[in-house]
Amino acid sequence: MDVNIHPSWKAQLAEEFEKEYFKNLIDFVKQEYTEHRCFPPGKEIFSAFDHCPFDEVKVVIIGQDPYHNVGQANGLCFSVRDGIPHPPSLINIFKEIERDLEQPYPESGNLERWAKQGVLLLNATLTVRAHQAGSHQGKGWEKFTDAVISTLSRKRENIIFLLWGGYAKKKGAKIDKTKHQILESGHPSPLSANRGYWFGNEHFSQTNGMLRGMGEDEIVW
């Protein structure tokens, strides 16, 4: 399977790639992509790592599963390709940015522009079968993405982790809170957002305030 992943991540995760569970995972993924329609496209499975080198990660956003409808997933959590209608969670993310930062709602839902500024957009599971949400959960991806979070926590300092919803908060158990900043809120999905757990979290202005305080460039959300 032809995938793109930045060399800095290849170096950091080399040991993980050699583990038995990861080899079994890749065998499973190859078979799924051969026998079924799956997303994102094979070469974009590791896009989150390709667009955001290890040493440039400033912010981590943790999602759960790639979008499972045609043309949506591009390997970055919450992100869709240019020209694709924005899914409900992404709409609520953009509405909060609009409210929090008083900037216009963006036309494109492609978040590569964030990744290139140091935002690692990490889904816990990196692949999915078309129209079957969660179909690749429990196959090894979660163990791999736990290792990614642990590696960042151990080897880097002062990363800002945005944990939205219960699932992301559980993944956050791997983060050393003495070395990194963590912001938590409800999930941007309509179910959570409409109950008042998302809107008003001000995570985007808070993140930029923290980056300013560290002498780092703010993210242009």
Automatic annotation (TrEMBL):
Keyword Glycoprotein attributed: no
PANTHER family, per database record: URACIL-DNA GLYCOSYLASE
A cellular component annotation (GO) from this entry: cytoplasm
GO molecular function, one term: uracil DNA N-glycosylase activity
Domain Uracil-DNA glycosylase-like: 50-211
One GO-annotated biological process of the protein: base-excision repair, AP site formation via deaminated base removal
EC numbers for this chain: 3.2.2.27
Keyword DNA damage part of the UniProt annotation: yes
SUPFAM superfamilies the UniProt entry points to: Uracil-DNA glycosylase-like (SSF52141)
Active site: 65
Source organism of the structure: Dokdonia sinensis
Keywords for the protein's UniProt record, in alphabetical order: Cytoplasm, DNA damage, DNA repair, Glycosidase, Hydrolase
Catalytic activity line of the entry: Hydrolyzes single-stranded DNA or mismatched double-stranded DNA and polynucleotides, releasing free uracil
Stated name of the protein: Uracil-DNA glycosylase
Highest taxon in the source lineage: Bacteria
NCBIfam families: PRK05254.1-1 (NF003588), PRK05254.1-2 (NF003589), PRK05254.1-4 (NF003591), PRK05254.1-5 (NF003592), ung (TIGR00628)
CDD domains for the chain: UDG-F1-like (cd10027)
Record function comment: Excises uracil residues from the DNA which can arise as a result of misincorporation of dUMP residues by DNA polymerase or due to deamination of cytosine.
Main localization category: cytoplasm
Record's subcellular location: Cytoplasm
